[in-house]
Amino acid sequence: MPYVLALDQGTTSSRAIIFDLEGRPLGLAQQEFAQHFPEPGWVEHDPMEIWHTQLQVARKAIARAGVEPGEIQALGITNQRETTLIWERTTGKPVHRAIVWQDRRTARACERLKEEGHEALFRQKTGLVLDPYFSGTKVSWLLENLPGLKERAIKGELCFGTVDSWLIYNLTGGQVHATDASNASRTLLMNLQTLSWDEELLRILGVPKALLPEIRPSAGLFGRTLPELLGAAIPITGVAGDQQAALFGQACFSPGMAKNTYGTGCFLLMNTGKAPVASKNGLLTTLAWQLEGEAPEYALEGSVFVAGAAVQWLRDGLGIIQSSSEVEALARRVESTEGVYFVPAFVGLGAPYWDAYARGTIIGLTRGSTAAHLARAALEAIAYQSREVLEAMEADAGLQLSELRVDGGASANELLMQFQADLLAAPKVIETTVLGAAYLAAVGAGLLSKAEISRRWAAGGRFTPQMPEAQRERLYRGWKRAVERARGWAEA
Ligand SMILES: Nc1ncnc2c1ncn2[C@@H]1O[C@H](COP(=O)(O)OP(=O)(O)O)[C@@H](O)[C@H]1O
Ligand SMILES: O=P(O)(O)OC[C@H](O)CO
């Protein structure tokens, strides 16, 4: 019986799951790791902790599934995207902590690039906007701020990678320095049409080509794991950014199909088919996946930086809950937020605003406000932000979504899912699990086809709207006013 091992390296935890070819999970392990906030607006991870937690959970998942490592015929990797690492090519030693996608340290650098008139060029070539979110300016920051790094990069002594590359490098014992096109499409360095590194953009950002990984299709052989790591030389056959992998796992294979993933952030992606569609409403154009021997497929994306992370902040920053799942019971203690809005712009606002200087705002507090109102406002904020990006997407695509497939850690929250269905009015919200990395790896190993994956897709739950329209629109107008108060705050 062939099995697939999926590694899901997320912003807050490393996960590993063994699946059978029916998409059934047989063994799972997950481990949270440390978030470092060295300065306001900066977010870092320890690369070695990423690697060690990922390796440990992989071993645990194999043991829990009770399968022989030799029976695992494909390994898929999916990962938090944009997070930027540089390490020594020969020793594998990281030169710095990973700069996480949420990190804002390059806000000024992005502004300078805009002032120099580069914005339209980056938008046209990469489908992205000039925001600190993406890897490109993070790479430049490392090269400019660590002594001697640029010279070493030019000489080819160093490797840049997003988390997928870092894991591939370590899993193959330093043999392979590669990334997939979906991850590369998030760097500001890849041309979305040619799927290759763009010399002009590299020159503007001062990034030497010798630093960059090879770009490969998302499904296909990347290399084999060192046998001593997982007990067998397992072929790595699927690699994609976590949001693209979720789109794949949700079997959104036709243009117009969309999913929203509620994790640390919220990421709404819609398949737009074989040609990239430019957004007029503040969304990103991104590569969905490239399967070996097939034309690449593209997506429109609305990226919301803080979703479940707001719940984490209630837990770790305020201490009003002990675990993320407790937020639902706390929020249910009140019927509404009674006018309290919480705009969790801790790291600025992503789509559709792209405001690196917005900051978290809680507004509408009265003497009657309690932790329960705040908990409810945090959950509602996740749904409001998702509505904003959905509206932008429908405007760009010129269609109305008939349903939205959802997944991610916070989609387990029924209060949130019901409020989301209420707020979106028409679309029904359906829940299922992410299998994308496993499915990509299975496709890459020739074990499954897209048609077989579509047949396996099943809804885990369904939420239909219940809120009266007048109430829905009144609440949403309040949210828009709250966002205006949060915008531009840190600029001064
Ligand atoms: N029941 C819940 N209600 C709301 N948020 C939750 C719940 N369970 C988990 N979360 C949030 O979801 C996020 C974890 O989801 P996950 O998909 O694992 O994210 P990531 O891949 O970004 O690490 C955390 O930010 C956590 O606070
Ligand atoms: O870690 P997640 O699941 O919140 O995903 C992070 C995204 O990939 C960032 O772009």
Automatic annotation (TrEMBL):
It comes from Meiothermus luteus. This is Glycerol kinase. Key enzyme in the regulation of glycerol uptake and metabolism. Catalyzes the phosphorylation of glycerol to yield sn-glycerol 3-phosphate. Its EC number is 2.7.1.30. Pfam families: FGGY_C, FGGY_N. One of its GO terms (biological process) is glycerol catabolic process. Gene3D superfamilies: 3.30.420.40. GO terms for cellular component: cytosol.
